[in-house]
Design goal:
Layout lengths: L6 E5 L3 H13 L3 E5 L2 H8 L6 E5 L1 E2 L2 E2 H11 L4 E5 L4 H9 L4 E4 L4 H17 L25 E3 L2 E4 L4 E4 L2 E2 L4 H12 L7 H8 L10 H16 L6 E4 L3 E4 L4
Parallel strand pairs: 1-2, 1-3, 3-6, 6-7
Antiparallel strand pairs: 4-5, 8-9, 9-10, 10-11, 12-13
Helix pairs in contact: 2-3, 6-7, 6-8
Length: 249
Amino acid sequence: MSTRPASIFLVDDEPAIAEAVSFALQAEGFRCRHFATGGDCLAALAGEQPDLVLLDIGLPDGNGFDFFRRIREQGDVPVVFLTARKEEIDRVVGLEMGADDYVVKPFSLRELMARVRMVIRRSAAAPASNAVSATAATPGGGSSSAGAAPTVVGRFQQDSLRRQIRYAGSALDLTLHEYRLLEVLLRHVGRVFTRAQLLDQAWEAPDHRLDRTIDSHIKSLRAKLRAIDATADPIHTHRGMGYSLEIGA
């Protein structure tokens, strides 16, 4: 039985770029709908949920970051930012907001298609998408999938099939990259990882010019752990080196 081609919303007001990207997406077998404004994209999202949104930051009717927030209010569709801006801070902001990737213009269509395929594969492998909710688990006996048991590491409980991690009995509401970072730390308790090593293992296409974004994700993880237990501090900072997870903390 054939599967439907992935649907992609392209939001970009530059006709030449939009035409080239639309053609490349269709040549790769994707269904593509193009919108010149963020408002048009939001209106279409009310009736259709695509597999991916390619979102330009500079749009005629508003800032792409603002539209990203409104898109995420409507659902957990993966988003890849497209932008002519080269400033590192803009890329960091986009990733910290929870975007799935970031491509700077001018880009090669081959690279863009590779990133699109990567994000769609990753999203399909993690149906819970960027938010891992408390309702995804069944405490006290329900199994996440036939024959699969959660892995217990100290006060952490990881259900790899549901892409969920619980701490002290409570589900953590994690973004995709927060989940992947914590997963890496849980696999190697006590090991000190540099920022570059964490980027390599938690990001599909790491950009080492952005390794400081790890600090922001670690800060967010710590806040979420302390929201469950105010005294919790299992993620240790090793000055000049990186981070480790200590299960006795």
